[in-house]
Amino acid sequence: MRSLLITLFFISSIGFQQAPPKPVEGTFLEPADSFNKGRAIGTSIFYGSGWIGSTLALQYVWYKDFEKSSFQFFDDSREWMQMDKMGHAYSGWTFSRLAGDLYEWSGVDHKKSAIIGGSLGFAYLSTFEFLDAYNEAWGFSWSDLGANFLGSAIYTSQEYFWNDQRIKLKFSFSNSGLSEYRPNVLGNSFSTRLLKDYNGQTYWLSFNPWVIANKESKIPEWITIAAGYSIHNHLIGDGSTYVYDDGTSTLSFTPFRQYYLSLDVDFEKIPTESRGLKLLFRALNYVKVPFPALEFSQNGVGFKPFYF
Fold first, then answer.
1. In angstroms, rounded to a whole number, what is the distance separating the alpha carbons of residues 269 and 208?
2. Secondary structure of residue 7 in the 3-state scheme
3. What's the pLDDT tens digit per position in 119-157?
4. Final residue of a domain: which of 128, 150, 165?
C-alpha cells in the first residue's frame, strides 16, 4: 500500500518530468548529445530531494503512529496472495524508469542511464524496507526487497538490451464491494480503497508479441495484449476464510486468485509529432485502458465486457 501511494504520486506528474521518447530538436526536453553537467546536477538534486522528502514525510506521517522496535525481520511473503509484492515490482519499474530517463536526458550514455536508473529505483524503495525494520508492526521483508529488485530489473534489462520498454507494467482499479465488511482494513473511501483494497487492484504486463520478437506485423504496434493478476474475497492478510456476522446474517469469504487476458493500448507507440501529446501519452502509459477481458479463476472462465 505504501509503495503504491508513493508511485501514484509520482505518476501524477511523471509525464512532465521526463523527456519524450522522440524529442523535438532544439527544445529543452531534447536529451543532451553529450554529458551536460548542469542537467546532471539538476537531475540528481531533483531525485535526491524527492528521495529525502518522501522518506521524511513517511517517517513523520506514516510511521509516527506505530511503536518502534529494534531491527527485526518479518516474513510476509505469503500474505495477500502476493498482491503487495506486485505493487512493489510495479513501483520498482516506475521509479527506475523515471531515474533512467532523467539521466539519459542529462547526456549520460543510454546503457549507463539504464543501470543508474535501475540502481536508484531499487535503492530508493529499499529505504522503506529499512524503516519497516525498526517498527513493531512490521519488519525487514526479504520478499519486499526481492519484488523491488524484480521491478527495477525488468526496466534495466529491457533498456540495456532492447533500448525500449517492450513489456510495460500497468495498474488498474475498480471497487470490489468488499470494503464494507472490513472498512478499517480495506478502506472507507475511494482514495483509501484504491490503496488498501487489494481485491480491487489488478497488475498487468502489457506487450505486443510482434514488437517483442522485433518482427513486422499488420497489427499496429500500439495495440497490445495485457495479462493481469488480482485476488478476490481476501479480507485477512494471511489468506484465511473471513466470517462476517452483523447479528442478523452471516457471510463467509474464502479468498482466491484471478487471472485476466485483455487488450490494451501502448500510447507511446502511437505516431505523433506533437510534443504535448508525447508527454501526455507517457503519463497515461502507467495505467491499463479499460477493455473486455477473460477471467480465469477457481470458478472457471468468465467474461468481463468492460474491465478496469
1. 10
2. helix
3. 999 999 999 899 889 888 889 999 999 999 999 999 999
4. 165
